[in-house]
Amino acid sequence: MTTYSFPENFMWGGATAANQLEGAYNEGGKGMNLADVMPGGKVRLGVIGNPGFDFKIDHEKYVYPNHTGIDFYHRYKEDIALFAEMGFKTYRMSIAWSRIFPQGTETEPNEEGLAFYDRVFDELKKYDIEPVVTLSHYEIPLYLITEYGGWRSREVIGFFERYATTLFNRYKNKVKYWLTFNEINGATHIPLLGLGFSPESEETRLQDSFQGLHHQFVASALAVKAAHEIIPESQVGCMLVYAPTYSFDSNPQNIMHALQEQRVFNNYCGDVHVRGAYPAFATRYFKENGISLDIQEGDLETIKDGTVDFISLSYYMSRTEKKEKTPEEVGQGNLIGGVKNPFLEASDWGWEIDPEGLRIALNQLYDRYQVPLFVVENGLGAYDKVEEDGSINDDYRIDYLRSHIAAMGEAIEDGVELMGYTPWGCIDLVSASTGEMSKRYGFIYVDKHDDGSGSFERSKKKSFHWYKNVIDTNGKEL
C-alpha cells in the first residue's frame, strides 16, 4: 500500500453540528430553531425540498429526534474525552444560533447559551483540541423564519452580524478558525435547510434562493471583516458541499450540460466567497431562469472586502450528468441530482461512493482558487450491528475512509494545500438528510434509535481504534 505524506501540522479530527447532537432543545434559555420542527424520517415524509412546510410541531403525528440528539449538552465532557483518546487535533462543531439569541432579534445575548459553549471550548483546550466553529449550520432561529421569511429577508443580515460579532468578542481567546454558512451552495436545491424558507412553488424557488444567497454573501463578508478586526489571528472559511460533475459520456451536448451544472452548483458560491465578485456565467444563467437580484448600494463592495481565508468542503459523492435523461436513469440516492454512474457502488442510502472524486474535487478547487482547502465533512452513513459481545465491526466504514484519505494524500502529492480532515459524525448523531439515528457515521456508537428509545450509552467501534492509529501515524498507516 502507498504511504502518504501529510503535513506535520495537519488537522486530524471529526465534525458534528449542534442541532444533530446537543439535544436539550428547550433548556438553558434556548429558543426554537429550524431543526426543532424537523421530524424524524423527514425525507420519507416529503418534508425536505417540498413547498408548503408549516414549521409546526405535531407530537401525535411525528417524532423529533433533534430534541434529544445524543444529549451532548449534558455529556460533552465524556464525548470530548473520547475524541481526545482518538488523538483529535481539531473538532469541527457549530453553535446553535438560538442558544445565543433565542428569537434572533434580541439586542442582548442569552448568557446561559454563551456559558455553555465556554465550557465546551474549555474542555477542548484541556486536551489541546483546536475548535473549528460553524456559525450557521441548518438551525436558523424559528422566529426569523415565521416572522421574516428566513434569508429572503434582508433584515436577517443585521441579526446575523450581531450574532457573529457577539461570538467573536466572547470567544476571541478560544476560537481561531471559523466557518460562516454550512454547505451554502446546497441552498438552491434545498432552501429549507440553508435559507430557512419552504418555497411557495417551483416557479419561485430559484428567484428566492438566489436572493437569499445574496443576503448570505453580504452577511458572510461582514462576518469575515468583523472576525479579522476582533481576532487578528483568526482564519475564516466558507463551506461548500462539493460534488465534481462528470459528463455521462463524450457527447459534447452532455459535456456542456455537465459543465453548466458544475459551474452553478460547485463554482458560483466559491467564486463570490473567494474572488469577491459574481462570476461571469451568472449573467446568462440569471437571464435564462428569470432571476433578478436586488443588490443594494454598497453590497458588492462589502462582498469584495470580505473574502474568505480558506475553503472548507463536504465531500460525499460525485455527480454524473446527462442533458436528456429518463426517470429510470436518475440516481435515486444522490440528493444533488444527476444520473446513475455505472462505475460506482452506492451506500445503504444510495449515495454513490467515489473516493477518486475527492482527489478530483480538491484539484479542481485548488486550480481555481489557490487558497488552502479543508475537508470538514466526509463519511459513510450505514447500518451498524452490535454483536453479542458488544463489538461493532464496521470494516465497511474503515474501507470507505481509508480510500478517501488516500485520495487526499494523492491530492497533496498533486500540489494541493490541504489543512485538515474532520470526517462527519465522528460520534453517531441524528442524520440531517433523513432525520434518522439508524444512518450512522460515527467512530463512537450511541445507543439511541429512530423511535427515540435507547440508553444513550457510548461505545467504541472498530473504526475508533483504526482512526486513532491513522492520527498517531499522521496518515502513514491506513
TrEMBL record:
InterPro entries: GH, GH_1_N_CS, Glyco_hydro_1, Glyco_hydro_1_AS. Keywords: Glycosidase, Hydrolase. The active site is at E377. Pfam families: Glyco_hydro_1. One of its GO terms (molecular function) is hydrolase activity, acting on glycosyl bonds. The keyword Hydrolase applies. Its EC number is 3.2.1.-. Belongs to the glycosyl hydrolase 1 family. This is Glycoside hydrolase family 1 protein.
